[in-house]
Amino acid sequence: MKTFQISYETELNEAQYQAVTLHDGPILVIAGAGTGKTRTLTYRVAHLVEAGINPENILLLTFTRKAAEEMLRRASKLLDHRCAQVTGGTFHSFANRVLRRYAPRIQFDHGFSIMDTTDAQSMINNIRNEWKLNSRERKFPTKATIAAIFSKSINKSKSILEILESEHAHFSHEATTLVKMQHAYQQKKREQFAMDYDDLLVYLRNLLKLNKDVCDFLSNQYQYIMVDEYQDTNLVQSEIIRLLASQHQNVMVVGDDAQSIYAFRGAHYKNILNFPRHFPGSTVIKLEENYRSLQPILSMTNELIAQSEEGFAKNLFTKKQKGNLPKIIVLPDEDTQSRFIVEMISKFSKKNKIKLQDMAVLFRNAFHANHLEIALRSMGIDYVKYGGLKILDKLHVKDFLALLRIMVYPYDELSWRRIFLMMDHVGAKTAQKITQHIINEQIGFQGLFTYKTRSKYSQQLDQLRNMLETADQYMHDLLSISQVVLNYYQPILEKTVDNAPQRMAELKNIAEMMKGYEGLDHYLTDMALEPPNTLDDESVYDNSDSTRLTLSTIHSAKGLEWRVVFIIWALDGRFPSVKALNTPESLDEELRLMYVATTRAKERLFITSPTNVYDRAAGDYLDQPSRFVKNLSSSLVKWHYLDD
Questions:
Q1: pLDDT band at 390 (very low <50, low <70, confident <90, very high)
Q2: Distance between CA atoms of residues 48 and 20, nearest Å
Q3: Does 8-99+209-287 match 392-529 in CATH topology?
Q4: Cα–Cα distance between 160 and 393 in angstroms, integer?
Q5: pLDDT one-digit tens code per residue, 107-126
Q6: Which residues fall within 8 angstroms of residue 642, CB to CB, at 6 or more apart?
Q7: Residue 442: C-alpha distances to residues 439, 445, 590 (Å)
């Protein structure tokens, strides 16, 4: 019998130990909130390697690159450097790696580019404008709505008409046009050797389905597959896993059906419920011992999620029995809610010596915190907000990346158009004309040098040419390239915005991330696949020593924890939202969202419900606390009613 270097039995609880040491066959691990999911996956990587499995035969798929890197780093620390040789990453990064290797099989070039969400929307908008679909007489969906319809059609394996009827009924009559537009969009991407996020998964799925030799080779290469956050996978990702496991069925998926909150992105909640059906003979293991929260919080969350229509039964428990009951505070209005939150934060900070960074305010939608932000600023309470504008949605960031992209992808129509539209005296037609010239010349960005004009913008074209020539001399020195681009872009930025110094500082932080990359193409691929969430993201700034209060949407707070948590706007019609009341599925997802929010709290939990609020969407006053908390047992929560 093999002796192991790591004492797995003493370092893990019974359920974790079973999940770590059972190697063969399909395994579903239902990991409740705070039950040591990451620890379990980390120890399993180490156990597989220590048992003699070649690290190159192990695949770990997660939803962020950071999660995979952290697990493999911890596993290496537990055991040794062999764990770092395990293939780990996101579904999209894995797809990118495989598709570049087998690009000719899907009629693509090895050097295809990856479009982010805003690139995709821009391309769709170009088609929309070319087809003259944005006239006043014809109300047509916006570029963002069209992109979402296309994406959901793919991720949910439904026709465009089905998506329209279920989510955009007022546009159902445009189904035929949208189907034609989707074909045009696909064609345009192919012409530019570009893929969007959905393409990466769809082309990987198709590659595996239509090329048995490739599927068998990859399945034999990755004989032990682990998938994190399985409740967040879509139908395409679920199919990819089944294809990759086709030769051996050695697949462990880890997740919590009660924390499935991404249906709006196409996540298919039923994937985790159907796993035992997709993989007959599966072993189901439940992790229920919680290492985060005190028992009073867990008792409340157990009863909360028991309201769900379906799912795996689970009962979270902890050895930390004592603590305060969660409190539900009913207030007369939003102003009182904001004052209450500010007062409680000040009290915890001063009297209880709880640091600001150990507290968080969570909300259903980003705009729910607007009033509170004003109150916090007036009291001088420093905070950071998550769940707002994403880094790649910021115009100056898009400009900066466009200038870098044309050096690697010289026929990237969207980037060239964007760059020319930064120039004075250049409109959409001229931008398209110069772009088309570069594409027709087929000599890379040198095509710009053969474009002749005496127009007012000729000097600006010369400046762009000079920048490209200078940058070309530093192709193996990414920080120098970024400096050349920033020097070119700074005067443009200063002419167009009032807060140019702040935006330049943000761009310098993004440029700093180039350190450690071998080539510009790798940097651009990573920025497209997994950009930092916000400019406060710790992959841009190190927030480990932050002393700020956290304000966050619940979606952005998933996986995090704080000593004290406030959940605001727990009002029927706001949380759950009016829109969610239409279908049982939507209502159940809102319940899971509330569950995710409540399970972020370690020691104290406050849920606030301002009543007597007029809601335009509902066309009525909202005056009832959220149905999710309204009927909780009086022994599990404390109700407080505050007057103005």
A1: low
A2: 8
A3: no
A4: 26
A5: 998 989 999 888 999 999 99
A6: 329, 330, 331, 332, 336, 340
A7: 6, 9, 52
CATH of 392-529, one of 3.30.565.10, 2.70.98.70, 1.10.486.10, 3.40.1550.20: 1.10.486.10
- Pairing relationship of beta strands 549-553 and 383-386 according to DSSP bridges: parallel
The single-letter DSSP state of residue 163 is H
- In the DSSP assignment, the letter for residue 325 is P
CA dist., res. 133 & res. 135, Å (int):
6
Is the preceding omega at residue 576 within 30 degrees of 0, hence cis?
A: yes
Q: Is the dihedral of CA 99, 103, 108, 113 positive or negative?
A: positive
**pLDDT tens per residue, range 174-208:** 999 999 999 999 999 999 999 999 999 999 999 99
The Cα–Cα gap between 125 and 132 comes to 10
Q: How confident is the model at residue 543 (pLDDT cuts 50, 70, 90)?
A: very low
For residues 113 and 518, give the distance between their C-alpha atoms in angstroms, rounded to a whole number: 17
Q: What is the CATH number of domain 8-99+209-287?
A: 3.40.50.300
CATH of 295-389+543-641, one of 3.40.50.300, 3.30.450.40, 3.30.70.980, 3.30.365.10: 3.40.50.300
